[in-house]
Specification:
The chain is of the alpha+beta class and 146 residues long. The protein contains three helices and seven strands. The protein has one domain: Mannose-Binding Protein A, Chain A, CATH 3.10.100. The chain has a three-stranded antiparallel beta sheet, with no helix packed on it. The protein starts with 29 loop residues before the first helix and ends in a 6-residue tail after the last helix.
């Protein structure tokens, strides 16, 4: 028995997570994500994975914290990203692109796979924030950031 779906996803006193099928919790646009990240210690920035391992780590973090969609930073000059699209191929950001990268679950089922796509930056489509901090990198790594 799954504690947050039985008897229903909306009415269960044993559930301690956000209800699965709730797409109305996606309220953050890209600007709100940037602002949220800037409020953190060391002024972290919106997550931008450079490798597949970093991308998987961010997806794992989002899953662990109940996030079903979040914004990612992207290269301003365009290029291939570590995120994959719904087709399983790396997401390519065209040069001069004005849209933002949204990473989200393929459906309202939290067990569906996550993929990246380009969406309007003003669209309120994220329900969580993933940030990365150079301060955390310095603290936990013997290497100095560039």
């Amino acid at each position: 028995m799954q504690g947050c779906t039985n008897p229903t996803a909306y009415d269960n006193p044993l559930c301690v997570q956000l209800a699965r099928g709730r797409a109305d919790l996606r309220v953050l646009d890209y600007a709100a994500t940037e602002q949220s990240c800037r409020q953190g210690r060391g002024r972290p920035k919106v997550a931008w994975p450079k490798t597949a391992i970093e991308a998987f780590s961010m997806i794992g973090y989002s899953r662990e914290h109940g996030i079903t969609s979040f914004w990612s930073a992207s290269p301003p000059e365009g290029g291939e990203m570590a995120w994959t699209g719904d087709d399983g191929l790396p997401l390519v950001v065209p040069p001069g692109n004005k849209r933002c990268v949204l990473v989200s679950t393929v459906s309202t089922d939290t067990h569906g796979h996550m993929f990246a796509e380009l969406r309007p930056c003003k669209a309120r489509l994220a329900d969580g924030v993933i940030c990365e901090s150079a301060m955390a990198y310095r603290k936990h790594s013997p290497f100095k950031p560039p």
